[in-house]
C-alpha cells in the first residue's frame, strides 16, 4: 500500500480507536455507577440500624469527652514544647 | 600450533564484531541506568544483562538451542509472560479510587489518544527515506504511549516481533522517565489556580463492589471486545484473587513470586531481542522519538480532558489528575501528587490520581484489544 493509503487507514484507525475506547469505558462507567447504586440499595435494609445510629451520632458532632481528651493532649504537648 | 590457533579462534576477542560490541555497550548503559540511576531497575537490569548475553560471540545464546532462544519462544512469542505479569499487576491493583469516582475512566480513555496519534505519526515517518513501517509496526510502536510495559510487549509480540526489543526498551525507559517528561507538560497546560484545586474526599467502597468490579469488567470485555480478553482476563483474575479475600495464598504468589520470576525471564527475553542487526537500525531511533511523543501527547490529552470535565462537573476536578491517565502505575500518580503539592502544600492528590491511573491500565488494554482486532 502506498503511504497515502496507509495514512488514511491510520487516520480512520485513530478515530475508530478513540471512539472505541471512549464507548467501552463509558459503558463501564454506567455499569460501575449502576452497580454501586444497587449495592447500596441492597445493603441498606440489612444494616439499617447501625447506619441510623451512626447518622444520629454524627449530627451531634464530636462527643464532648473526645474534645476534652484532645484539648488536654494538645495542652500537654504545648507545655512540653516550652 | 594448530591447536593454539583453534583456541584463539574460540576466544571472544577473535570473534567480536563491532555492532555486537556496541550492543554490549548498550546493555552496559542499561545496567548503569538501572543500578546507578534506579531507572526501572527491576526490568532494565535483566534487559541490560540479556542484551550482553545475546551479543556474546560463539556462545549463541539466542540461536536455536540457546537458553535465551527458548526463554523468548516459551515466554514472549507465545504471549505468556506479559499475561502472567498482568495477573500480578491485577493482584497488586486497588480499584477503590476508581469505583468511588468512576468518571475518572474518561481520563484513562483520553490519555489513550497518545497511542492513536502516534500510530498516525509512525506512518507519517514513512515519508523519510529509510523508514518502512507497516500498519502493524506502527500499532506496536504506538502502544508505547499506553505506558504499560506488559501491554506493549504483548502487542509487539503479536504484531511486530522484529521491533520488540526496541519497543520494550523504549516503553520501560520512558516509564522510568515519567517524573521528567510529565511535569513540564502538566505545568504548561494548567494555570496555578487550576493546580491548586482541592478535590472532595472519596467515599468508602464496600468489599462487595470491589469483588463485583473485576467480574463486571471481564463481562463487558467478553461482550464488546473479546480481542482484549487475554490481557483484561488475566488482570481481572489477579484482582478477583486479591479482593475476594478467600485465596490470599494465591493472591500473594501472584503479587510476589510469580510476578518476580516472570520479570526476570521477561527481562532476559526482551534483552535477547537487542541483537545488533535488529537494534542498530534507523527504525530504532524512530521508535525512541515516537515513544517520547506518545507519552507527551497522552499526558496532554489527559490534562485537557480533566480540564473539560472540571468545567462540567459539580464537584471540582484538578486537571493535573488527567496526566495520571497514561497508566505507568503508580509513578504517574506520584508525579501528579508531587506537582499538586508544589502549588498547594496541603493538597494531596495521590488517591484522586490513582483513579485515572488504574483507568489508564484498563484503557491501554482496551486500546491494545482494538488494535489487535482491527490490525492484527
Order of helices and strands of chain B: HHHHHHHHHHHHHHHHHHHHH
Uncertain segments of chain B are: none
Instruction: Work out the helix count of chain A.
Output: 3
Counted up, domains of chain B total 1
Give me the count of strands of chain B. Answer: 0
Helix content of chain A: over 70%
Binned strand content of chain A = under 5%
Principal-axis shape of chain B equals globular
Please write the string of helix (H) and strand (E) elements of chain A: HHH
Radius of gyration of chain B: 22 Å
Give Rg of chain A in angstroms: 29 Å
Report the span from N to C terminus of chain A: 81 Å
Q: Which bin fits the share of residues in helices of chain B?
A: over 70%
Overall domain count of chain A:
1
- Structural class of the secondary elements of chain B? mainly alpha
Low-pLDDT segments, ≥5 res of chain A: 47-58
Report the structural category of chain A: mainly alpha
Fold blueprint:
The complex is a heterodimer of chains A (82) and B (376).
Chain A: H1 3-46, H2 48-59, H3 64-81
Chain B: H1 2-9, H2 12-15, H3 18-35, H4 41-54, H5 67-77, H6 80-92, H7 96-100, H8 104-110, H9 113-124, H10 135-142, H11 149-159, H12 164-176, H13 178-189, H14 192-196, H15 207-224, H16 229-244, H17 248-272, H18 276-279, H19 282-312, H20 331-343, H21 350-375
Helix pairs in contact in B: 3-4, 4-17, 5-17, 6-11, 6-16, 6-17, 8-19, 8-21, 9-10, 9-19, 10-11, 11-12, 11-21, 12-19, 13-19, 13-20, 15-16, 16-17, 20-21
Q: Quick gist of this model?
A:
The complex is a heterodimer of chains A (82) and B (376). Chain A has 82 residues and is mainly α. Chain A is built from 3 helices and no strands.
Q: Features of this protein?
A:
heterodimer; A: mainly alpha; 3 helices; elongated; B: 376 residues; mainly alpha; 21 helices; globular
3D structure, described in words:
The complex is a heterodimer of chains A (82) and B (376). Chain A is mostly helical. Helices cover 90% and strands 0% of the residues of chain A. The termini of chain A are far apart. The model of chain A is unreliable at 47-58 (pLDDT under 50). Chain B has one domain. Chain B has 21 helices and no strands. In chain B, α6 (80-92) runs antiparallel to α11. Chain B is globular, with a radius of gyration of 22 Å.
